[in-house]
Amino acid sequence: MISTSMPTSAHPSASPGPVAETLEDRVLLEDVDRLGARIKEARAGIARVIFGQEAVIDGALVTLLAGGHCLLIGVPGLAKTRLVQTLGVVLGLDAKRVQFTPDLMPADILGSEVLEQDERGRRAFRFIPGPVFCQLLMADEINRASPRTQSALLQAMQEHKVSVAGHYHDLPAPFHVLATQNPIEQEGTYPLPEAQLDRFLMQVDIGYPDRAAERAMLESTTAARTVEPESVLTADDLRAAQRLVRRVPTGDSVVEAILTLVRNGRPESTDLAEVKAHVAWGPGPRASQALALACRARAILDGRLAPSIDDVLALARPVLVHRMATTFAARADGVTVPDIIDRLKATVG
To answer: What is the Cα–Cα distance from 329 to 182, expressed in whole angstroms?
Structure first.
C-alpha cells in the first residue's frame, strides 16, 4: 500500500505530484461509489412511501445533495407534505412544518424574545427559537403569507442564520427549506419576490402519477397497515455527501455549456432574437452556481464520477424556470418561460 504521507526527502529526484493525484482520484472514486450506494438505498426507501414520483424524488435529493432549497409546485393531494416528512426520516433530519397563512408573522417562524423575571426580581430577555431552527423546514403554501413574512426566510436561506432583536442566531446544519405552492388557486396569495425565488436552487413541478402508480398508492395507503419510512442516512452523512459533491470534477465542456445556457438567457448578453424579444429579465450568476452543483449531485445520484452535458440539459428547466420572466408581449403571444428554456437548450451542443 502506498502512503500519501511518505516524506518527499526519501526520493529527492522524484516528483510526488502524479502519485498524489492518482491516489486522490482513487479515493474520490471510492467515496463516490460508497455515497452512490447509500443514496440509491435512500431513494428506494423514499419510493416505498411516495408512489409514481421518481422524478420529484430525484429532484429533491439532487437539491439536498447540492446543499440548496427546493420549491415544489403541485396541486393538493400529490404527497408534497408526505414527501418532506419521508425525506426527514430517511435522511435522519430534524424536520418541521409551517403552514403559511395571511396572518402568519415573522416571529411565528423565526422566534422571539420574551422578558422573564427570576426569583430575585431581575429581568432579562430570553430568546425562544421558532420552527425555522430545524434541519428540514417545510414551508407549506409559502405564497399565502404576506411579503413581510416571506422575507423572514431570506436571511435564513442564504446565510443559515437569523437576526432577532439585533442578535444573530445560527441555524442547525444542514439547513434546507422545501416550500410548496398550489399553481391553481391564486386568490389570496402573494407572489414570491424575485430575490427569494433566486434562493431556491431548483423548482420541481409535481404532476399526477400514472395509473399503475396510483393503483399501488391506493392499495398501500388504504390497507390496515401502511408502509412507514425508515432511516437510512444521518445528518452528518448528508453533510459529508454535500462536501463530496463539491469535490466532484467538472470538465471544461460542462462549464462552457452552463455558461452558454445561462448567459444566453439574459437579454443583455445574448444574440438570440427570441430572448431579446420575449425575456424581461434572465438568470443571474447564482443560476450558474446552482446548475453546476446540481449537475454534480445528479452525477453522484446516477453513480457517475463526473457530470456531463446531458446533466446540464436535464436540469436546465428546474434550475432556470423560476429565475426568468417573460415580457407582456411574450405572454400575449403565448410564449412561456419553459419555451424559452427549450430554445436555450438548443444552443448547447
So the answer is: 26
- Asked whether the predicted pLDDT for residue 20 surpasses 60, the reply is no
Nearest to 325 by CA among 282, 286, 287: 282
Residue 164, all three cell numbers: 432577532
Pairwise CA distance, residues 103 & 122, whole Å = 34
Reduced to 3 states, what is the DSSP secondary structure of residue 123?
Answer: strand
Residue 171 phi, psi dihedral angles, 5° rounding: -90, 160
Q: Given its phi and psi angles, is residue 92 left (phi above 0), alpha (psi -120 to 50 degrees) or beta?
A: left
Enter the C-alpha cell of residue 43. Answer: 431513494
pTM of the entire structure? 0.84
At residue 120, the pLDDT reads 78
Residues 211-253: tens digit of each pLDDT = 988 888 888 888 777 778 888 899 999 999 999 899 888 899 9
Give the separation between CA 273 and CA 347, rounded to whole angstroms: 13
* Residue 345 in grid coordinates: 437548450
d(CA 274, CA 35): 42
Q: Among 165, 163, 102, which residue's Cα sits nearest to residue 132?
A: 163
**Which residue segments constitute the domains of the chain, with CATH numbers given?**
30-247 (3.40.50.300), 248-349 (1.10.8.80)
Mean pLDDT taken over the chain: 85
Q: Is 21 or 38 the better-scoring residue by pLDDT?
A: 38
The rounded radius of gyration (Å) of the Cα atoms in the chain is: 23
